[in-house]
Amino acid sequence: MTWDWQFVWSFMPTLLEGAWLTVLATVVGTVIALLLGAVLAVAGYSRYRLVRGAIAFVVQFLRGTPLLVQLYVIFFVLPDIGIVLPAFLAGVIGLGVHYSAYLAEVYRAGIDSVDRGQWDASTAINLSRRQVWLHVILPQAIPKMVPPLGNYSIGMLKESALLSTISVFELVARAQAIGNETYRFTEPLTLVGLSFLTLTIIFTLLLRLAERKAEGLR
Amino acid sequence: MTRLQTPCIEFHDVSKRYGDLQVLNGVSFQARPGEKLSLIGPSGSGKTTILRVLMTLESIDGGTVRIEGEPLRVPGEQQRLSRSAERGLQRIRGKVGMVFQHFNLFPHMDVLRNITLGPMLTQGVSRDEAEAQALRYLDMVGLADKARSRPSQLSGGQKQRVAIARSLALKPKIMLFDEVTSALDPELVDEVLAVMRTLARETDMTMLLVTHAMNFARDFSDRVLFFERGRILEEGPPQQIFSEPREERTRTFLRKILASGQDL
Ligand SMILES: Nc1ncnc2c1ncn2[C@@H]1O[C@H](COP(=O)(O)OP(=O)(O)O)[C@@H](O)[C@H]1O
Ligand SMILES: [Mg+2]
């Protein structure tokens, strides 16, 4: 088998479109996971045991079942009860919801890492709860959260490949389609691998930047 | 002497539990405005809890606590306060300041910001005024040159003096000191005690001091309360408590402290 550059150039445009979808799915999935994860984390501190229990169950469920199964449920089962989502939307919701469970843990760990005495001292200088969160707890917790949050986002980038199974035309799905059509898999799959590598490197560099910014809070 | 004056602090039959553990068991005492009280007693006898209740960091299960005649109502874990009750609590809390055993400075802010945060956020003081005032308090505790340092760059004794300045900046009427020198290396204890001595002399704040430093308590306080198992076993002027305690258990405790050399 020889490497055919001509062939490579012919499918580059469609592969780039796939890469764009992969990035988009990762970014939207990350945003959903960041928001929903924050909700889960805050609700996990509820004074009501029932709420705390429900949240613990949801988190355990999301972490304890495969993302692939969750994607199938959203894409193939929800239509049975009348909820029909376009493939891309179903995919990013699946990614975001799945990862929100992990991010909730990251938030909690960050917040719990702040010494209890900080709450006492803040109360002693009469800050309101809101002021304590804003000026004392979060500025200390966020720098600790950023690295694991970034790592999960990079994990999401790679796992977004699973979206190919529910007909989202991201990188892997494109490579498969090209292969099926031309019976050549070497070039498309190699380039998909290189694309993922390039993207994870870019995401990692962005993460370093974010970490440095977050350090500034301290 | 008749009591025409409202007590600054009033505990009446206060009880508190942590689960099955009865931490305060019918505590009653009063402090006159400007009075300096020392709380002594074995570890676990409830001294810190008394201060935390006054600082509104803990709720109580029975009895009443009053500050300048106003009852203190701190919600328990499962309770929520109405807006107006929350404001009332904040107003009373503003009269009290506390210095902790482990300093609890804000590590992500410099010394100056540690001190100006409270006045700026809770009393509407402008930044310029808050900083000018913070520098005066820093000067008073002998740390004017450390305004731009981070807490992590300070020694324990310096941290505790910053913590004292942070409390003073809010101009409380009541100051609570919880074993403020216990976490310090012995050679750093004196610089903190010196600051507290000056405070006791030059201000008319009511002060409650939890300490194992008996010599200091003797000079510092108008009255000493001896705690044991969540009760006040005995109270009196320092000369009496330290020289001729009425209770055998007070005597035993003082002997132990002296023998252990904790009496700095
Ligand atoms: N948050 C808490 N939960 C459970 N028990 C506690 C808590 N805080 C203090 N205690 C217990 O209450 C008792 C009294 O504590 P404390 O007031 O700190 O005593 P002291 O300051 O006299 O050493 C101790 O037995 C302590 O272990
Ligand atoms: Mg204590």
Indicate the topology.
The complex is a heterodimer of chains A (218) and B (264).
Chain A: H1 5-43, H2 49-64, H3 67-77, H4 87-112, H5 116-124, H6 129-159, H7 171-182, H8 186-215
Chain B: E1 9-18, E2 21-31, E3 36-40, H1 47-54, E4 62-67, E5 70-71, H2 83-93, E6 96-99, H3 111-122, H4 127-140, H5 156-168, E7 174-178, H6 186-202, E8 206-210, H7 214-220, E9 223-228, E10 231-236, H8 238-243, H9 248-260
Parallel strand pairs in B: 3-8, 3-9, 6-7, 7-8
Antiparallel strand pairs in B: 1-2, 1-4, 4-5, 9-10
The structure holds adenosine-5'-diphosphate and magnesium ion.
* H/E topology pattern of chain A: HHHHHHHH
Beta strand % of chain A: under 5%
Query: What's the overall geometry of chain B?
Result: globular
> Which cofactor or ligand species appear?
adenosine-5'-diphosphate, magnesium ion
Biggest interface: chains and residue counts?
A-B, 19 and 28 residues
The averaged pLDDT of chain B comes out at 94
**Estimated structural class of chain B:** alpha/beta
The count of β-strands of chain B is: 10
Care to count the β-strands of chain A?
A: 0
- Uncertain runs of chain B are none
- Major pleated sheet of chain B: 6 strands, mixed
Question: In sequence order, what are the helices and strands of chain B, one letter per element?
Answer: EEEHEEHEHHHEHEHEEHH
What is the CATH topology assignment of chain A? MetI-like fold
What is the overall number of helices of chain B? Answer: 9
Radius of gyration of chain A (CA) equals: 21 Å
